[in-house]
Amino acid sequence: MSTKVSTISLAPGCRPQLREGVRLHRDRLSGRPVLLFPEGMLLLNATAVSVLRLCDGQHRVREIVSTLAATFDDPHDLLSVDFAECLLNLWNRELLHLLSREVS
């Protein structure tokens, strides 16, 4: 089992991606967006859905933050901190990994 971390180094060029078996879905009963994974599910708010849709292994951190800053009309620096906290939470739950290789 991996060690939980309290900080995560987010190089602007790394590409976050949901781990295999983790996916966005809509709960059939409530209609709310959820993140499904083998051990359970997380209920998501609209902001989390916006973040996770961009964590596809194709978008770099700097691109995701810029897109979210424009979408939510938030200051880039403030959004960077919130984004890093969101990714840290997913990382600690082993729902996300960070790719560093270039996409071919």
Task: Describe the 3D structure.
The chain is an alpha+beta fold and 104 residues long. The chain has a single domain (15-96), classed as Arc Repressor Mutant, subunit A (Orthogonal Bundle). It contains three helices and five strands, in the order E-E-E-E-H-H-H-E. It has helices at residues 46-54, 61-72, 76-92, and strands spanning 15-18, 23-26, 33-37, 40-43, 96-99. The strands form two sheets. It has a three-stranded antiparallel sheet, covered by helices on one side. Strand 2 (23-26) and strand 3 form a beta hairpin. Helix 2 (61-72) crosses helix 3. The mean pLDDT is 86.
Element layout with pairings:
Blueprint: E1 15-18, E2 23-26, E3 33-37, E4 40-43, H1 46-54, H2 61-72, H3 76-92, E5 96-99
Antiparallel strand pairs: 1-5, 2-3, 3-4
Helix pairs in contact: 2-3
Features:
20% strand; Arc Repressor Mutant, subunit A; 3 helices; two-stranded antiparallel ribbon; 104 residues; alpha+beta; 3-stranded antiparallel β-sheet
What would CATH call the homologous superfamily? Coenzyme PQQ synthesis protein D (PqqD)
Q: Which structural class do you get from the secondary structure elements?
A: alpha+beta
Widest β-sheet, arrangement of strands: 2-3-4
> What's the shape?
globular
Average pLDDT: 86
Largest sheet descriptor: 3 strands, antiparallel
Order of helices and strands: EEEEHHHE
User: In the CATH hierarchy, what is the class?
Assistant: Mainly Alpha
CATH topology: Arc Repressor Mutant, subunit A
Sheet-strand content, in percent, reads: 15-25%
Give the proportion of residues in helices.
25-40%
Give unreliable regions as ranges.
none
Number of domains: 1
Q: Number of helical segments?
A: 3
Q: Tell me the CATH architecture.
A: Orthogonal Bundle
Strands, total number = 5
Rg, alpha carbons: 14 Å
